[in-house]
Amino acid sequence: MTLIQHLEELRRVLIVSLVCWVVGSAIGLAASGVVIDLLVRPLQYLHQPLHYFSPMGYFTIHLKVGMVVGLVLALPFVLHQAWTFVAPGLKPNERRFAAPLLISSIVLFALGGGLAYFFLYIAVRIIGAVSHDSSCDRTGPTPSSRSAVWATW
Question: What is the pTM of this model?
Answer without folding.
Answer: 0.74
